[in-house]
Amino acid sequence: MPALLIDGKAEAKRVCEQVAQGVKAFAEQHGNAPGLGVILVGSDAASDVYVRNKVRETQSVGMHSFEYRLPTQTSESELLTLIESLNADNKIHGILVQLPLPPGIDVNRVIESIKPEKDVDGFTITNTGRLAAGLNGLVPCTPAGVMILLKQVHSELAGLNAVVVGASNIVGKPMARLLLSEGCTVTIAHKKTVDLKSLCKQADILVVATGVAQLIKGDWIKPGATIIDVGISRVDQDDGSTRLVGDVHFESAWEYAGAITPVPGGVGPMTIACLLANTLIAAERLASSSVQV
Ligand code: GUN
What we know:
11 strands; multifunctional enzyme; methionine biosynthesis; NADP
């Protein structure tokens, strides 16, 4: 039987519609819509596209978008000064610094300078720790989006074997924590993992976030498994054109999987939808904490 194609675009649209309703209610109650500040330093082409998409989607759900495009030569202290001003600005409820940052800027210092309540990427130590401890915080957007997709396929995740390939702070580690919190038995595979193929074959749920194009082949997959492909790479074709592919070799994986995300149109749209959901959550929490005495 062919695999179920997990439609991230349709699911993201549903999440964005819900966020738009929440934004309307927030604006009616507080007199102003939530605001998201997005900072891009330098001229990385991929980052430029991501930021443009984030700005467009923020506006489409009725939020205010504040965009800060800084030159590559921007110093760390100039960037920290901007973040400090956004931390103090009541019109801004979420702050996102697009990564990667140019060399010479300490990414950890920059992330830590974001007020945790406005850290809509969920990258600060406070939000990382809250997630690890099972406490309410702001959860990184891509793993949050993946969990929504998985819950579309599985009414119950508890007891399933989940393998996360890739151990980044942005995706792999928070992904594993979310799967664990749902009762999955979780393994994180990484560059040093021995016999990745055998490990992948044991996974009921396989989440791949390595940045290595088409790393996972069909015969690495347990028949019927759910495959979530977080990767996106542009590869050359024989005819001189290029196309986008994921970290999973889709054409062969499709034959084995029970359900699989396409690239593009799978996880990507969910990341932005969850960024907007996080911004609304941040705005609601900030508003309720400011009325308490
Ligand atoms: N660069 C690639 N992915 C991300 C992300 O999720 N957030 C930020 N801030 N930068 C990124």
